[in-house]
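lol forgot to send this yesterday, sorry. struct tokens for the thing we talked abt
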């Protein structure tokens, strides 16, 4: 779940996502004694992962370069390898705003809506509306990249 979240924030850059995932677990280990059990461990780890990714983006904003996968017009989705499809998906997710990225990554991780709404601090009804809008936006982004 942490790796997928980091992949979304790092727009599909696997090596960078691996590095950030390691940072997350180092932070979790170092802060384990400060866990107050006000939420589940999963929620707590998600928050640490999000904060780690956001901190990286803030600190390295000008230095962060993402290579885009070029897809020719005659290439169709069914001809793409699964790896390229995932890379394209993560790059598209990377174009969403930070909150939308977090939500869609949790949805892709198959987190239940109660957990996502707890992490985000919004009601489940509001979450469902946001997810619908995010999926619509993501579909538009992916269609424009073809």
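and heres what i got for the seq, position by position
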């Amino acid at each position: 779940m942490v790796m997928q979240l980091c992949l979304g924030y790092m727009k599909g850059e696997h090596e960078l996502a691996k590095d950030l995932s390691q940072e997350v677990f180092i932070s979790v280990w170092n802060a384990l004694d400060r866990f107050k059990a006000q939420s589940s461990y999963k929620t707590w780890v998600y928050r640490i992962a999000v904060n780690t990714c956001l901190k990286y983006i803030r600190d390295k904003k000008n230095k962060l370069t993402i290579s885009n996968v070029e897809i020719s017009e005659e290439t169709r989705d069914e001809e793409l390898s699964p790896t390229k499809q995932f890379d394209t998906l993560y790059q598209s997710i990377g174009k969403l705003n930070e909150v939308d990225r977090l939500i869609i990554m949790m949805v892709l991780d198959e987190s239940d809506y109660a957990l996502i709404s707890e992490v985000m601090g919004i009601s489940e009804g509001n979450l469902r509306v946001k997810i619908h809008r995010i999926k619509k936006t993501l579909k538009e982004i992916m269609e424009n990249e073809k």
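DSSP finds seven helices and no strands in the chain. anyway ping me if u want another try
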